[in-house]
Amino acid sequence: MRGIGARVVGVCLGTVLLMFVSGELATRMIIEPRISGDMTVEKPGVGQDASTGLYETDRRLGWVLTPGVEVRHRTVEYSVNYQIDPEGNRSTRQREAASLLINFYGDSIVFGIGVNNHETMPSYLAEILPHMNFTNRAVPGYSPDQYYLSFTDDLEQRRRPDAVIFGIFPENDLEGLTQDSVYDPGRGYKTKPILIPSNDSFQLVFPERDFIAPPEGPRATVTTVLKRSYLINLLYAHGLLIPGFGFLAEGARELGLTEADLSMAEAGLTRLEWLVDKISAMDVPVIYLLVPSRDAFQTRSERSMKVIRYRVTKELLARKGVSFVDLLAAFPRDSAPYFPLDGHLNATGNELAARAVAPRLMELVSAGHGKDRQ
């Protein structure tokens, strides 16, 4: 009987494993490419052809948006256009009568991946606060060091803004401050400079190549396999994992963290603190917009590394006494501000974020300084 029972258990486990592998392969081959989607050039950039696409290489920042380009982005969740103005910004309506200029810096969240031009945070704010003009200087894939470089370059080369908003996404910004590459679907890893602080100055370290091969992955373990599973993440995004198996998507991802992951986040937090100090010394009113990941918004578990990253970043900003907006607190628990699969803010999320920022921005501009505490 024991032998029969063991065989039955073995068959059941084998069946479950086969179903998991089959589902994973199907997800990776069919669903995942449709989630990432494809971008096609509707209108080439200034002096460019259609092969240039949304980005062009920049030796200081790594890459920038192609001025004048219009790109169509299609996925299973959306089909939208990204228009880039002649100065290399995501297009936002400008009013001649508006007397104040507000610059946004950030990554794909602030840029507005997945939404049309009129559905981005800066565009919603332009409707809420018509006496202000907003410039969307965010670029997908950027980290806070690139925000800082873009901001300081703009102070020298463009009109000085009346206030600045930095979108901070702790989910990957802390690691991004220590990395010299960002994954670009279909092309490998595009490289970026690393800003290394040194007292009151810094050193920029540039990779030798514009694109590099993917780094060798970590040793395969149960937890590393689970946390990288497209199938499990897909089920988790739709709330289809029952509570008893929630560890597969959340806990396993955190259990799979290595010491290198943790030390990288800690090093990133140290560099972020240096950047905050440097920006505070520039006498430009600043708001930091803290954006939680979809998983952090859904779980809110203090044991989740995603929530921990968010919390320590929030604590850093509070300790520095700078003005910031906490979207984890601002988003209603019953709202749906994210695309379920893509994970970026949808139009609802962008509007909610804009409405959370508007009163703080009014206070900051009226006060004329950036030291309003949360």
Question: What would the keywords be for this entry?
Answer:
374 residues, alpha/beta, Rossmann fold, five-stranded parallel β-sheet, globular
Biggest sheet architecture: 5 strands, parallel
CATH evolutionary superfamily:
SGNH hydrolase
**Proportion of helical residues:** 40-55%
Quaternary structure annotation: single chain
| Low-confidence region ranges | 211-228, 236-259, 369-374
Distance between the termini: 66 Å
Shape: globular
Strand order of the largest sheet: 7-6-8-14-15
CATH C-level: Alpha Beta
Number of strand elements: 15
As a percent range, the share of strand residues is 15-25%
CATH architecture: 3-Layer(aba) Sandwich
C-alpha Rg (nearest Å) = 22 Å
CATH fold field value: Rossmann fold
> Helix count, per DSSP?
13
Q: How many independent structural domains?
A: 1
The chain-level structural class is alpha/beta
| H and E order | HEEEEEEHHEHEHEEEEEHHHHEHHEHH
Average pLDDT rating: 80
Describe this structure in words.
- By secondary structure, this protein is of the alpha/beta class.
- It has one domain (39-218, 258-367): Rossmann fold.
- Helices cover 42% and strands 19% of the residues.
- The chain is built from 13 helices and 15 strands.
- The chain has helices at 2-36, 108-111, 121-128, 144-157, 170-176, 222-227, 230-237, 251-255, 259-280, 294-299, 305-320, 327-330, 347-367, and strands at residues 38-43, 55-58, 62-65, 70-74, 79-83, 100-105, 132-136, 163-168, 181-184, 188-191, 194-198, 201-205, 211-212, 286-290, 323-326.
- The chain has a five-stranded parallel β-sheet with strand order 7-6-8-14-15, with helices on both faces. The protein has a three-stranded antiparallel β-sheet with strand order 1-4-5.
- Helix 3 (121-128) crosses helix 13 (347-367).
- The longest helix has 35 residues, at 2-36.
- The chain is globular.
- The N and C termini lie far apart (66 Å).
